[in-house]
Amino acid sequence: MKKFDIKNIKIRKVSVDELDDRMLLMNLYLTQLLTLIIGLAWIFFQGRNPFSLLVLPAGPAFLYWGFGLAAAVVAVDLILSRWIPEEAADDGGVNERLFRRRPVWHILVISFVVAVCEEMLFRGALQHAFGPYWTSILFAAIHVRYLRHWIPTGLVFSISYALGWIYIQTGTLWAPIAAHFAIDMVMGLIIRFRRET
Asked: Where does residue 150 rank: exposed (0-12), middle (13-18), buried (19+ CB within 10 A)?
């Protein structure tokens, strides 16, 4: 029987171009699962019921907040993309690889999974502990692919702060989930169909 030697494990940086589609998706879904598990555990250790955060609110007001914020974010992003050089907004090609050939139904699934998992951790757990400002710093830091350029980093921080703000205003996690879902979905669809034409 072979012994497992931890000293022989080698870690190296891999570019997005070195990943095949299956590995890219597996990486995405595993990191989202890990994000969700950390969020649920953190909420549990705060003495709160994580599932109570997902109770649907009575009225549709949370959708107005969520989709309103998403519309503002997409509008600002489209306006900025007209004047900002592409290399200043480069994310290393991750979004391009993730969405460019993905079927529409899968873009919707990815957007929903990411929205629920990340909002459970960031708004549900971390914002409760640290407030919206420090949560937004952590949110920007976890989106490491944007950190090479100050414009996308600033946008990610601002979007995160706005997500935290609508969470406070509505009192429901579904408002930032709706916004996060709509932002990712629209941007994914733009990438998907912009490249087809």
From this structure: exposed
